[in-house]
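Give me the 3D structure for Large ribosomal subunit protein bL19.
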Amino acid sequence: MDIIKSIESDQIKENAENFKIGDTIKVFYKIIEGKTERVQVYEGLALSLNNAGINRTVTVRKMSHGVGVERIFPINSPKIEKIEVTRRGKVRRAKLYYIRERVGKAAKVKELIKKKADQK
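Predicted structure for Large ribosomal subunit protein bL19 (120 residues):
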């Protein structure tokens, strides 16, 4: 088992740890089209985070033309260039699956406002 853990530890990304559930995040995802490679941005609300070592995933939900679209991203994938936090959310749950049934303003998450003393 030590061999597997040593191989996995080399592949784990350390810079993707800066977001939590309820945050609005931008996922910069590499897409290969033929011989060209480009980066596509997927911005949405982080609904759930599954922590399983190297198999960590995040479920991101966005509204596209009035329809909710969810996508699951493996955080440690080499296709993920970076994950950027747009807005911090104030939530009290570990999974935000109830957002799926909400419509309009009820589907929003309050913004987390930190005091200046906490930001240091």
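The radius of gyration is 16 Å. Let me know if you want a second pass.
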